[in-house]
# Entry
Amino acid sequence: MTRKPEILAPAGDTQSFLAAMAAGADAVYLGLKHFSARMQADNFGSAELSRMVELANENGRRVYVAFNTLVKPDDVPAAGRLIARLARDVKPHGLIIQDPGVLALARQAGYEGGLFLSTLANLTHPASLLAAKELGADRVILPRELSIDEVKQISAACPEGLDLEMFIHGALCWCVSGRCYWSSYMGGKSGLRGRCVQPCRRVYKQRNHSGRFFSCLDLSLDVLAKTITDIPHLSCWKIEGRKKGPHYVYHVVTAYKMLRDNPDDPQARKDAEKILEMALGRPSTRARFLPQRTSEPTSPDSQTSSGRLVGKVQTDAEGRPFFKPHIELISYDYLRVGYEDENWHSTLPVTRRTPKAGTFTLRLPRHKTPKAGTPVFLIDRREPELVQLIAEWKRKLDRCKGSEPTAVEFTPKMPKPAHPRRRPDMTLRASLPYGSETRRSRNSVIGLWLSPKSVREVSRTVAPNMAWWLPPVIWPDEEELWKRIINEAIRNGAKHFVCNEPWQAAFFKGREADLVAGPFCNAANAFTLASFAKLGFSAAFVSPELTKEDFLALPKKSEDAPETRIRLEPPTRMDKKNKAVLEEFFKDCQWKPDWERVQIKGEKVYLVPELPAKLNGIHFLRNGLYLGDLKKNRFEPSQQLAMTLKASDYAGSVSLSPEDERIGRYLRGETLLLEPGEATREKGWILVCVDQYALGWGKLVNGVLKNKYWSGWRLKS
# Structure
């Protein structure tokens, strides 16, 4: 008989942990104060966690610690010490890991429990499991985007000794596997570091229509639980919700435990559905889980906030807010006034019983006084029965002694550094190269997204000089197609490949290929780089999540590394003639380059950044900001320079409205006609803008604007 999958419950605080224990969860996952992907939850200290693990052991349960953030170069020693303390004092049954490098760091720190690769690790196709097993993973947590057929496909390819875990209930993320850079871009707070500001939950406008276009409903596979009960290697059903309260945890665990233990009982199914309705989550969806009967994961025109709508705000004669609840409210209920994506929303407890249609006065800070009509949601409920159960388990927890935290002596032994070799410069294109672009030197390659079309249309003479980029996500039913595409590319002479999942290295086992880990692999520390080297990569792009300081620190974070020096190539001496040409152009520009940092290589002019004189093994793909070209006593500005400017920054500009049909023509590389006075000057270089934001350059002569938009970006139709 197939082993029943464990029910894995979330816990963001002690009350939720106890609710999970009371509901009969087989395992609970939770986070620490650091290195957790839900830093907004209360999370736990190591002393408190050790008592929880002791309580779990006494009752035949398990505790997994979410260590699922990106680990930056300076974080490695602290991460290692924390894992060493967990291994010595807490002994959790598993660590949930995003960063592949932490697999090796954890074992080095003496941790002997299970190592589980999070959904954030982005394992999306069958071959990825082999690579995960090679790095030492014990379990892989599957993406929430997979259908039932894809889950079965991955399960069939799962190697022995590797378990699978899948989400069955809880929040969905707009980006695949939660690998989202949106929060970093909009708010400077990394979702991969546990500080997501949830920009996907906000209201956006498009063509006079507003809605929550990216706010996902909650996943719920309750009616499909029977279909996933007997999938081989699927050892765990996971419930999302480390920011949820104990009411949610208790009811969801109870419902799925009922469905798992009574798969053929129609009454149990009905009871479970009723229990889930009481859980106070968001409206639910099956998303893409049933490929033949997909349902939309979003509902832009409706509210997708968690909680149950219990009323709307009214105001009395003196302007004080109140509402009349649609249901009875009891003590210890928790309310939210407004939608959770609105900055001004408020949460408050219910301190006394309020009958249905009774009056509940809202006592809120003056600056958060809601308007009439604002919705009020019940987001957590502490029924007397649940409160009593939690109290009973709290007494059990109090009897557990645990272990007091003490300092731990651990210094990670950093991976040995590689000796860097000169790599060719790479220029990534969206379209096929043509003309002189195909005749590159041995010191440069063209990056091109790999596809059936691109691999067929690039000739055998050009293919070896290309860097073929694989997509960030490959789904299970696409794996065989991509294997064929890669085989065809290699037969055509392709040598250089950029993988955007580290697990794509499995496609190249036994092949001679130069593999580079792309930016979506999120290389962030020396251990991650070492894990990539083990998989067969010879180079890596660093994670876009790294700051300048993190990037410069990365090559130095190895105690075994001998100090290496690289000499920044001194700039070519700028003669008076060249300087005069450049000064003539930049006199019309509000922004002036630092002439001491201007470098000329051949015809190309760069503004070199200020960098330290000592760097370990860093190879620069670009000298700096590419300003333009010196040609026959004249200067031609670059597309890169244009993108650093606004209309007000340059004396010659034209600003088109977003509705102007000439924008499309400009982006296609066509010549434009300008009306007299439309540009800020009659001839010469013109910065072409839309609403003051630059698109590129043009050269104006007698009302005709010659197009200088970079050819690599031009639209084909």
